[in-house]
Fold this sequence. Notes:
Blueprint: H1 2-17, H2 19-37, E1 41-45, E2 47-53, H3 58-68, E3 74-78, H4 82-91, E4 96-100, H5 104-109, E5 118-120, H6 128-154, H7 160-178, E6 197-201, H8 207-231, H9 240-270, H10 274-298, H11 302-319, H12 331-337
Parallel strand pairs: 2-3, 2-4
Antiparallel strand pairs: 1-6, 4-5
Helix pairs in contact: 1-9, 2-8, 2-9, 3-6, 6-7, 8-9, 8-10, 8-11, 9-10
Amino acid sequence: MKLFFNRFFILLKRSIKQPVNIAMLAVLLVLAIIYRQVPASEKTLYVPVALLSEDDSPLMQKTVEDLVHANSIFHFYTVDSREQMYEDISSGTANSGFVIPAGFTENALTTDPKTPIEVYTTQASLLPSLSRDEVFNQFFRHYALEIVMFQLGESPVYSADQLQALSGKLDEIYDTYLNSSEIFRVEDASGGVYNELTREEKVDIPVRKLAGLFILAAGLIGIATYLKDSEEHLYERLRGSERYVMRVLHIVSCILPMTLIAWPVLWITEGGNGLLLLGQVVLYSLACILYACFFSVILRSSSVYQKVLPILLTFAIIFGGVLFDIASFDNAFKAVSMCIPTYYF
């Protein structure tokens, strides 16, 4: 057992002195310092919404015009066809889309539900329920009085003269109701115009993915050192099981410093439960050890491994989520990502 620890201690000192490992450790520490020192910045939330109106009534035209010019976090804009709306939503140009069918105004006045407004969203759509509230708010403003007057006109109780007088009175009450500061009060902020939603965000640095990449890279470097030592006949006297132990010791000695640094770095940048985060880092490190052991069994030649190592690291960078969002990958690329430990970290 003493010999085991002596070997591990020697390998650990050697791995810490390797320039690549020193560089990765330094990068993680610098990122943690940057994250703590750079203040949070305000990020504007811009939510574009496509609007297609097939109803050419004057009342609907007024409603659409008010939606387009409304002071809201939602920026409504009109499109000319369903094809354009579908394209905008699928490409991310629009967050969601509304189609107002032909005859909507006529049917709304008769409370006929046969021409509902179509709402189109995707899994990536942001605040779709609030955008529906915004549309409903404009419809309420323009259509509520019209619906009331239409329904009263259908009743035999009121004559045409009575309805005209009542319309003027209701219009006055309705306008007073909508503009009453006692009922709806808008606090004056930024000049009274609220057309942006801002939130504080830290610098967008993929610290977790970088930490995962460095832990994986350290394990792969550990294989390279083991293969090099083996080809220099340093382990000739060791039996088969002892050689496997040395193989694992090389990998663990390279991964351990990265694990010990990654945990506090992630705790600084992410916060939360420190013990839970430590468990995540340890489990991920174990997965990287198994991943590295797998390749050490397949690739037993140092010269071959030196050629394969850049390919493995390139795949880890591209498909591990460091540069690109894995959620945006198609199924084929996601399948490749799932073969790399960084996908799960």
